[in-house]
C-alpha cells in the first residue's frame, strides 16, 4: 500500500518539476541568449523480494526472487545548448555568436564570489582584478563612466577583450565596428582597437546557470575552458555577428507538447493516489 | 475451519502488489529507456483433501457416494483445493520504446534490429571495477574524474568502449564534437587535434537470456548469476542501431497501466467482499447459532 502511495507521490513530484521547468522555458521565450532546460527522469531503486524453492515451478522464466519498483525521480536538468535564431537589430551594440562558444564577462572578485565562481577557477585564470563569468547574451551597451566609456553587458558587467581586460575607450567614440573575428574598430579606423574574447567549453553542461543569462563555473574542470588564445580553431566555427542578437532557443510547440505529457503524467499520479486511497478505504472497511 | 478467509487475504495481498507494479509503470511513463513490468500471478500448489477416518470406517462419507468408491481401501477423497494465490514472478517487457529527437549530441538511443534480441549499453559504476552493468537510458553526459571528462550516464556510470583486444575502457571525451555512427563507432573531433575514434561496447541479450537481467533501478540492469551463471558475458551486438541525437522513451502503455490499476483495484474489492462475507458467516455462527 505504501509503495503505491509513495510511487504515486513521486510521479506527481517529478511531473511538477517538469512543469516548472517548462513554464520557465516558456517565460523565457523571448529572452536573448536563453537556453532551454530539459528535465529527464529515471526509475527509483528496486527492492529484491526473495522467494522459496516452493514457487520454483515449471514454466517460470525468471530466476527465484522478484524486483519491486518504487516510482520515479528527476535525475537531471540539462541545458539545451543548441543555437537560437539570430535576430537582426542593426544596432551596433548587439553582437551574436553564430556557433558554439560564449562571451566572457569581467566581474570583481567579490562579485565572482557572490555568483559562486569556484576558487579553483579563479586561481587558474589568476587575474589580479577580475573573475570571469560567461554569457551568450550579446545585448551590449556603452556605459559612460568618469573620463572613459566601457563596453558592458545588460547587467553592467564589462566585456572582456582577448587578454582578459575590460574594453574601455574615450568618450568621443561614436561608432564602432566588430568583424567576424571579434576585432573591434573604432569609428572608421582600419586597425583594430581591440578584439573581443571568445571562449569555448568542451562540456558546456558543467557550467552553472546563475540566472540573468550568466553562466559560471561552480566546479572547475581542467581543460574545459578554451579561448581564442590557446585554441584559435574556435574562431573557425564561430563568427561574431554585429547587428544581431541571438534569440532564445525555446521552441514553443515543443514546450507545449512536453507540457501535455507532463500534465498527463501528473494526472496519472493523481489517479494513482485516488486508487490507492480506495484500496486503503476497502481494507479499512472490511469490518465496518 | 474457514480456509477461504486466508485465501481471500492472500488475494488482497497479491492484488495490492499488482497495484504497486501498475503504479510503478505509470510513474515511469516518461522515464528514458524504461521497460514496464508485468506480474505473473499463480495459485499455490493444490492439495488433495481426504475425509477423516481410515479405510475401514467411512463414517463421514455415505457408502454409496463416489468419494467412498474411488480408491477403495483408502480414506475417501474430498477433492483438490488450492491454497491461495501468489505473485510468481515479475517480468520486464523489453519491447522497443518510442524514439524521440532531442538534438543533444550525447543522447543516444538503441534501436533493435531483430525481435529475438535486445541491445544494451555497457556501463561501469567505478573506473577500476570489474562489474559491468547494462542500460538502455542513453541520455548521457560528461563526468569529470581526475581531470579527464568521460562519457557517463546521468548518474555518473561510465560508458564503456571496446578496444581491439576486447578490453573495456571508458570513453574520454575532449569536446562536444562527438559523432556516433549507427554501428556504435564514434569519432570525437577536437579542433586543432586529430579526431579520436573508437567502438562503443554494445551488447545483446537474446530473448532466452533477457529474464536473467535484474533491474537495479536508476535505469540499470545487472546479470543474474542464478540464471546466466557467474562470469556470464553477453555477445557484442550485431543487429542494433545507435541513433545519435535521439533518446528512447518508456515502453509503458498508459492505457494498459491504468487498466491494470483498475483491475487490481476491483479484484482487491472482490476479495474484500469475500472476507466480509466470511465475517458475516462467523458472526452468525458465534452469535446466532444455538440462540433460543
Question: What topology does this entry show?
Answer:
The complex is a heterodimer of chains A (288) and B (292).
Chain A: H1 2-27, E1 37-43, E2 47-49, E3 66-68, E4 72-79, E5 86-88, E6 95-97, E7 102-108, H2 109-115, H3 119-125, E8 130-135, E9 141-145, E10 148-152, E11 158-159, E12 168-169, E13 176-178, E14 183-186, E15 194-195, E16 198-201, E17 208-209, E18 215-216, E19 225-227, H4 234-237, E20 240-242, E21 244-246, H5 252-284
Antiparallel strand pairs in A: 1-4, 2-3, 5-21, 6-20, 7-8, 7-11, 7-16, 9-10, 10-12, 13-14, 14-15, 16-19, 17-18
Helix pairs in contact in A: 1-5
Chain B: H1 3-27, E1 37-43, E2 47-50, H2 66-69, E3 77-81, E4 85-92, E5 99-101, E6 108-112, E7 117-124, E8 133-135, E9 141-145, E10 148-152, E11 158-162, E12 168-170, E13 178-180, E14 185-188, E15 196-200, E16 202-206, E17 213-217, E18 220-223, H3 225-228, E19 235-236, E20 240-244, E21 246-248, H4 254-287
Antiparallel strand pairs in B: 1-4, 2-3, 5-21, 6-20, 7-8, 7-11, 7-16, 8-18, 9-10, 11-12, 11-15, 13-14, 14-15, 16-19, 17-18
Helix pairs in contact in B: 1-4
Describe the structure.
The complex is a heterodimer of chains A (288) and B (292). Chain A is built from five helices and 21 strands. Chain A is an alpha+beta fold and 288 residues long. In chain A, α1 (2-27) runs antiparallel to α5 (252-284). Chain A has helices at residues 2-27, 109-115, 119-125, 234-237, 252-284, and strands at residues 37-43, 47-49, 66-68, 72-79, 86-88, 95-97, 102-108, 130-135, 141-145, 148-152, 158-159, 168-169, 176-178, 183-186, 194-195, 198-201, 208-209, 215-216, 225-227, 240-242, 244-246. Chain B is of the alpha+beta class and 292 residues long. Chain B contains four helices and 21 strands. In chain B, a hairpin with a 4-residue loop joins β13 and β14 (185-188). The model of chain B has no long low-confidence stretch (mean pLDDT 87). At the A-B interface, α1, β1, β3, β4 and α4 of A face α1, β4, β9, β17 and α4 of B.
